[in-house]
Amino acid sequence: MSVILSPEEAEKLAKDRVLVSDFKQLKLEKEAQKNWDLFYKRNSTNFFKDRHWTTREFQELKACREFADQKLTILEAGCGVGNCLFPLLEEDLNIFAYACDFSPRAVEYVKKNSLYNTERCKVFQCDLTKDDLLENIPADSVDVVTLIFVLSAIHPDKMHLVLKNIYKILKPGKCVLFRDYGLYDHAMLRFKSGSKLGENFYVRQDGTRSYFFTTGKMLSFLFMYILSWNKSKSF
């Protein structure tokens, strides 16, 4: 869905051309994990609402089954404190979930949740841009990978590393479910001058970052790295 900007919004974005210094950008990249860990220290498990819409919005979770009660293995990449993980496990009893997050503190919150059951899920800390998922998940073993508001938090130059990583654990013919910020979302329009890191890429006051996708950019980016590989896997 295209967004129509007001004249004031269009003028504001047109004038916002000054980028954060290279020095600060390197510092933000180096301290990315620390900044997300501090985010969860400040907000605990209270910032994001539980995502009870996952099975409704992603019909692929049902469509990818060959029969109704087939057990699925999923990976929630960037699980945070479990706002998507736990509602999904409650709604679908035939799911085993791997879950990982950049923030060690977020992972600990998941493990301390009363709903955490090692018979139904395994959570671990992981930098998806460099830590090999094969250290925690067998190759070609996952039916569905969810990337929900995850890629936007990663530097655009490193997003392809995430896709290459999850590709290794995804079964042939299975899928990745993607949802993220879009160009001209309200979150983007709220950024003040001095927050811009690059094209459609911004930093919040707490040091966490966010990229805003266009449909064309998203599709070309995803298919460039998925369709060029050997096994047939889909978004």
UniProtKB/TrEMBL annotation:
Catalytic function, reaction form: cytidine(32) in tRNA(Ser) + S-adenosyl-L-methionine = N(3)-methylcytidine(32) in tRNA(Ser) + S-adenosyl-L-homocysteine + H(+)
An example Gene Ontology molecular-function term: tRNA (cytidine-3-)-methyltransferase activity
GO biological process: tRNA methylation
Database matches in Pfam families: Methyltransf_12 (PF08242)
Subcellular location: Cytoplasm; Nucleus
Keywords, sorted A to Z: Cytoplasm, Methyltransferase, Nucleus, S-adenosyl-L-methionine, Transferase, tRNA processing
GO CC annotations, alphabetized: cytoplasm; nucleus
Record InterPro entries: Methyltransf_12, METTL2/6/8-like, SAM-dependent_MTases_sf
The keyword Methyltransferase is annotated on this UniProt entry: yes
Domain called Methyltransferase type: residue spans: 75-173
Protein family according to the UniProt entry: Belongs to the methyltransferase superfamily. METL family.
Function, in words: S-adenosyl-L-methionine-dependent methyltransferase that mediates N(3)-methylcytidine modification of residue 32 of the tRNA anticodon loop of tRNA(Ser), including tRNA(Ser)(UGA) and tRNA(Ser)(GCU). Interaction with SARS1/SerRS is required for N(3)-methylcytidine methylation.
Subunit structure: Monomer. Interacts with SARS1/SerRS; interaction is mediated via tRNA(Ser) and is required for N(3)-methylcytidine methylation.
Protein name per its UniProtKB record: tRNA N(3)-cytidine methyltransferase METTL6
Organism whose genome encodes this protein: Pavo cristatus (Indian peafowl)
